[in-house]
Amino acid sequence: MVPRPTPDKPAPGQESVWDYPRPPRLEEFRGSITVELGGEEIARTDHGWRVLETSHPPTYYLPPDAFRPGALRPAAGSSWCEWKGQASYYDLVSERRTAPTAGWTYLEPTRGFEPLAGAIAVMAAAVDRCTVNGEEVTPQPGGFYGGWITSWVVGPFKGVPGSMGW
């Protein structure tokens, strides 16, 4: 059994991912979110949702109309989340670049996550830049999870070496 790490102490105005629940919680988000790919902005919104789960930085979901026309191309494959259900994938597309399977959605999310139906999350590590309220995010470590790290969220974060059992 891997021991639970010692959470970083949040400063005023910060939140600790170790205070997030398991099972995760969905909350509405009001603020600026942008996504850039191939040197161009492919998504912008001032409204979305955050999924908050113990040890994970928030995963942000954007409404489909936040994406410019042609930026979302359905991709093959699916996966299963024990909390949200079956995910479908999108390639993210700009004029200069394609990020394969860098976006995902839950078309029929499970109970409690219904507002996410059709909303799209973005793997920050697969695109040029994502921002929340003007701050560039850092992708969640490990290459598997879709959380976005900002200065107002402290860890340690699932995905770092040795975190498999958290």
From TrEMBL:
Sequence ranges of Pro residues compositional bias: 1-10
UniProt-annotated stretches for the region Disordered: 1-22
InterPro entries xref list: DUF427, DUF427_sf
Gene3D superfamilies: Domain of unknown function (DUF427)
Domain DUF427: 33-124
UniProt protein name: DUF427 domain-containing protein
Source organism of the structure: Mycolicibacterium arenosum
